[in-house]
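Write out the 3D structure for:
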Amino acid sequence: VETAERIGVSRTPVREALSRLAAEGLVDTGTGRTARVSALSRDSIQQLFELREALETQAARLAAKRRDAAVFESLRAEFLTTPPTTAAPDAPADDQRTYVLADALDAAIDDAADSAYLRTALRDLRGHLARVRRNAHSNPGRLERATAEHVLIIDAILAGDENLAAQATAVHLHNSLVNVLSTLAPNDN
């Protein structure tokens, strides 16, 4: 009731939204009418990254095969001319250019892969990953390395090298996972 009143809608859409969030694992429902954001554990993050690796390496492989070179050349130029930001993902738009470029690369790969099923699976997964990104602390050194990793992925896609695109993506995701896990408290199982 409080949430519905706070955002100015009836209880039905709030109830439906919470049910969907619960079905997606983003919300835990308790007894009665309670709901809370589900916890991020080390195990759940590792499982998300296992799925992410499977999906994103395949998307990179397909993008290398089906790419529009102009799109990736433009992205490459932007990555090379934009210094990595040091701001957290929830910072003002001007301070998060690195994250905007990473999202643009994801979208370009998704489009180039040209698979509606893969795109849908990745979209659903990225809802979970946004929470992980938000909770990981900004690390300027990691942002610089991630930029170089993104450029390598782009180069592999531009070269049409499906295997290198998939492997470069896997290395990037491994490094991202290591960074995210390093920000968790030791008791976050």
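The longest strand covers residues 27-29.
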